[in-house]
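Show me any protein, keeping tokens residue-aligned.
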Amino acid sequence: MPIINKFSADTTAANVDPASVLFKVRATNIRPLVNMLRSIFFRNRVSCAINSGGIVFTVEEASSTVAQAYVRTDLFATFSYNVQLAHEQNRGQTDSQNEEGEETVHVVLPLDVLLDCLMLFYGPASTAAGVTTGALTGSSGDLRGATTAHIAFNGLGTDFELMLEERGIISVCRMATFEPEPTTDLDFASSPVTQQLIIRSEWLRDAFNELDPTSETVGISMSPSRPYFRISTTGDTGSTEMTYSKDEHLDSFFCSEEHENWYKLAQIQRCKHALSLSDKTKIRVNQRGFVSFQFMIPTDADVSFVNFLFAPQSVPDEL
């Protein structure tokens, strides 16, 4: 549990010189960060990869579902990342750089506690199980824009610290961190993408609402000819099928191979919150049947992205 001190924040890393701390940011609007974290909140632990480009939060389940929220630097009023300190702390580690060769620090956090801390001024009901739509979308008269969050971290072995300010009240939260563990690599990029489309999220939300909850699986099919895109379920009450025309419903469409893959419905439903926040969704399927949903979520700064990657019910041995 976090340690909360409502009297003084003078000794926290959030107040120190950025040159002496590994990572320090300030957010004047916590709503985009909270929304993105809530969209991947189906497990209590989240892996964080921090570098000069921002933060990637990753949650995984059963070695078949991986969700990632990409929080870029432009979502923060200030963003400081000490590359030299990161390099010193990462000595001897083989996974200390990302694909672009940037020095990256990895840490694991309790996601439920992180959300509780960020929403501290809005009560215990503000975590993923209980936040109301109004609490997150807000109106001009509520306090959602009034909270400023300072976040700081000085490397493994130190606490992850948040200092929240609102109307002159200061609260400090310190969270214990965990050593990073090997993450699930579904290796989507190892197989060529054979199907890809971009669809307005409102069309996809309608499809998700029509899925039969008694079904254990959901089928996703793309074809070079009609019906171009199909989502289907079969449950106790019969079968449900939604089809989408390339010209009427899809912003872009590519399909080099026609095939249908089946996924666990309970896992696919994990992305409903991210879908509800997004304007558009990109769906990609590779030759092995792994499917990627990329949700494009508008924010004050720009578009942010939340990705979900799902393994199919079975993977052909020959692939």
